[in-house]
Write a structure and sequence with these properties.
The chain is of the alpha+beta class and about 80 residues long. Helix content is about 40%, strand content about 20%. A three-stranded antiparallel sheet has the order 1-3-2.
Amino acid sequence: MNNTKTKPIEIYAGSSWKVELLKTILEDNNIKSFVKDKFIGTLTPHYSAGGVGAVKLCISSGDLERAKPFVKEFEKNKSY
């Protein structure tokens, strides 16, 4: 039995469509995630640059090391 506890952690914050795009990338690589604050992010999109009103993407803390390269590449690619 594994006694390591995992907890949800925020891995990315931004606009709703960017969060959904990264969510798809992670899930295509077998990293489960969930979106937090989607409702407020759609009400205040002009504040969604990662601060107030940003939509957040969360993963299990146990998946953090596997997810980091995907998030880094996603943030590096500025074409979207």
